[in-house]
Design goal:
Layout (H helix, E strand, L loop, with lengths): L2 E3 L6 E6 L3 H14 L9 E7 L31 H4 L10 H7 L3 E2 L6 E2 L3 E2 L8 H17 L5 E7 L2 E6 L5 E5 L4 E4 L1 E4 L17 E2 L5 H4 L8 E5 L3 H11 L5 E2 L5 E2 L6 E5 L25 H10 L7 H25 L1 H16 L3 H16 L4 H5 L9 H21 L5 H11 L1 H8 L6 H19 L4 H12 L3 E2 L7 E5 L4 E5 L8 E4 L1 E4 L13 H8 L35 E3 L22 H18 L6 E3 H4 L1
Parallel strand pairs: 2-3, 2-11, 3-7, 11-22, 12-21, 13-16, 13-21, 16-17
Antiparallel strand pairs: 1-23, 4-5, 4-6, 8-9, 9-10, 14-15, 18-19, 19-20
Bound molecules: flavin-adenine dinucleotide (FAD).
Flavin-adenine dinucleotide (FAD) binds next to helix 1 and strand 3.
Length: 632
């Protein structure tokens, strides 16, 4: 084969597929880092592919206001900070909170309608998701506006359907409008891709996602009964759409006033346990872990044969100990400044002298009378006990919701329980350090993604507390019932033309019938069963594979530590990067929008992958030898 030298300063081309918060994060990094003097004025072309190309991603700007973010508005910012990206922060600008205040927006009395009426917006308000979409669109435009002249950025309002190799070592990206792009590097930031189409009995009366609710629920009539599977964020969205979205309202006392257009709703879930509501914030500074640290995790890993940790033997004890520490720290703080200091010193001394267990037991005894017994295991894995009948189950479900709501209303500063639970959220990066990129043994990995992530979500990624107040009001008003217990059977009764829902865990069996079965759970990516044409093509051509195909529970894309997809033959494609929800399984908790303060993993991933890409791009054209055929 003959080789020839490629011309120096060959233009570099990049395609970003998917322009939600992740895609914008990548774009921002490219623009900021190629604006630095070190890049010079080397031409670089960037193709941005997304059906809407407005940056909003899944946060549709036309959705109704009652669909709320589950992140408080001061905790949303797309601007990278020094803690995450070092000195190259680029542009600095407002959080979502500061931005809506700049726009003069206010929150109406109903607590969710955003406009020019009502009270001032507070940092801990949960705002409509549509306004996040608008913020993302604004951020995208602001980022594009500061692109240096040597960047040639083109928007393609289309869907990518295939990625293939060229003989020249680049990639082609085929779009559904017939365009074929050619790029040196490809970033896939496609977010939540649709599940594979499914057909099963009763499919015409099954609604597989509540989004967008106006279209999805159009066939549900007021006289219908809806079986709603899922009690988390999507379940609460579905409830809001079927009640507030149909003209219902809540009084100042929190009672629900029917519009007459809402259907009868049967709420249930696999575990039968309610989610815990997000507490009011009242945060008092950054959380400093004493035991769930990188050093402890690294030490445990070093002591383990093969380096893979066990969820129950290694990680869970650390999480539980840190939750107990947080509980007692808060009890100390609530007792007074002297008690707070004494508790902190005693805990730190116990960690130093390896006597933490004894110290935690002493603190358990000290705080029991005033703050109750705290057992992380009982909180994380509650048992429902014997469930004699439907009415008893609904009473227990409602009582658990009410008890948790009281703690959520107290807020993080006043609730030792919520402070302890918050460890699971604050220390997500530490959990990632333990589990990402094959960090757990096979069985633990399966349990982690099979049930433990659901446990974490139920504990700290629950609905906004107002939503649980609403749910209780809907139960009181008889609009919603929770009669089935955990994991009911759902069968399509072809003769009756309805769903038959049968309890499986109640001593006295209970059966209900429903016109509609609505699934309100957030789907995880599944490489082997996806409705995305692009993912199907990537899998069918062997370019991607499932992470840990031997385990049942995690079904996302396999990636390397550098975020490159691993092909079916085990080779990584170093000209392609995948970021965001598609990687769930290889890495943990990829579905969130970036927050300010501390290290943000989404923006860190964007930063490190873009730096790696620019490093590689610097060498294109620098004395690179390519086959003569390809160089022409
Ligand atoms: C209903 C719901 C509510 C949520 N609420 C919150 C919240 O309140 N707070 C929070 O932190 N997180 C929330 N999340 C998590 C969510 O994952 C993140 O907020 C964020 O949207 C993820 O960003 P992303 O860019 O990866 O994906 P997305 O926002 O989904 O953007 C991906 C983009 O890629 C496009 N795309 C996909 N495939 C292709 C293709 N083949 N070709 C071209 N374009 C393509 C899509 O059309 C989309 O525009 C929510 C998730 C859901 C499902």
């Amino acid at each position: 084969m003959r080789f020839s030298r490629t011309p120096a300063q060959l233009p570099v081309s990049i395609t970003i597929v998917g322009l939600g918060s992740r895609g914008i994060g990548v774009l921002e990094r490219i623009i900021t880092l190629t604006s630095r003097p070190e890049w010079g004025a080397r031409p670089l072309s960037i193709d941005l592919v997304d059906p809407d190309c407005d940056g909003a991603g899944l946060h549709d700007t036309t959705q109704p206001d009652y669909l709320l973010l589950n992140t408080v508005c001061s905790q949303v910012s797309l601007f990278p900070e020094e803690t995450t990206v070092g000195a190259d922060v680029g542009d600095q600008g407002p959080t979502l909170y500061a931005w809506v205040r700049q726009l003069g927006l206010r929150l109406a009395d109903d607590g969710y309608t955003l406009g020019d009426q009502g009270r001032e917006i507070r940092p801990d308000d949960y705002l409509p998701r549509r306004i996040l979409g608008a913020y993302l669109t604004w951020f995208l435009q602001r980022t594009l506006d500061r692109a240096p002249a040597h960047l040639n950025i083109r928007l393609h309002p289309a869907t990518a359907t295939a990625v293939n190799d060229t003989d020249a070592g680049t990639r082609t990206i085929t779009l559904d409008n017939g365009t074929v792009l050619r790029s040196s590097y490809v970033f896939l930031t496609c977010g939540h891709t649709p599940p594979a189409a499914a057909t099963a009995p009763g499919e015409r009366h099954r609604i597989r996602t509540p989004y967008p609710p106006a279209q999805q629920f159009a066939g549900i009539r007021p006289e219908h009964t809806v079986a709603l599977a899922g009690t988390g964020l999507s379940g609460m969205d579905a409830l809001a759409a079927l009640t507030l979205g149909r003209g219902g309202r809540y009084t100042d006392r929190g009672d629900y006033v029917r519009s007459g257009r809402e259907p009868h709703i049967l709420l249930f879930s696999r575990t039968g346990l309610p989610f815990r509501a997000r507490p009011t914030d009242g945060r008092t500074g950054a959380f400093a872990p004493l035991i769930l640290t990188r050093q402890t995790i690294d030490r445990l890993r070093a002591e383990t044969t093969g380096g893979a940790l066990c969820l129950h033997a290694d990680l869970l004890p650390l999480l539980c100990a840190e939750m107990r520490i947080a509980f007692h720290r808060r009890c100390g703080a609530l007792t007074g400044a002297a008690a707070q200091l004494a508790t902190e010193e005693a805990l730190r001394a116990a960690v130093r002298t390896d006597t933490l267990d004894a110290e935690l037991e002493r603190l358990d005894a000290q705080h029991r009378v005033e703050y109750g017994t705290f057992s992380p295991e009982d909180i994380l894995f509650p048992t429902l006990g014997d469930l004699p009948d439907s009415a008893t189950y609904q009473e227990r479900y409602t009582a658990a919701l009410e008890a948790d709501l009281q703690e959520a209303i107290k807020g993080l500063a006043a609730s030792p329980l919520k402070s302890a639970l918050e460890v699971l959220r604050d220390q997500r990066d530490m959990i990632r350090h333990a589990v990402d990129f094959g960090g757990l043994d096979d069985i633990s990995h399966d349990v982690f993604y099979g049930s433990f992530t659901a446990t974490l979500n139920r504990a700290v990624t629950g609905p906004q507390l107002d939503r649980h107040g609403d749910l209780l009001a809907l139960i009181r008003a008889g609009v919603v019932r929770v009669p089935l217990g955990p994991e009911p059977r759902c069968d399509w009764d072809a003769r009756a033309g309805s769903w038959r829902l049968s309890s499986t865990r109640l001593t006295e069996p209970h059966t209900e019938h429903a016109h509609w079965l609505v699934h309100a759970t957030s789907g995880q990516p599944d490489v082997e069963a996806t409705g995305s044409t692009l993912l199907n093509q990537l899998r069918d051509t062997g370019r991607i594979r499932r992470h840990r195909a031997g385990t049942a529970s995690s079904r996302g894309v396999d990636i390397t530590v550098g975020q490159h997809p691993v092909a079916q033959d085990g080779h990584a494609d170093e000209q392609m990067w995948i970021l965001g929800p598609l990687c769930e399984g290889a890495t943990f908790y990829n579905h969130y929008v970036p927050s300010p303060g501390g290290v943000n993993r989404a923006l860190l991933d964007a930063d490190r992958t873009v730096r790696a890409m620019l490093d590689a791009a610097r060498h294109i054209g620098e004395d690179r030898l390519v086959p003569a055929e390809a160089a022409r």
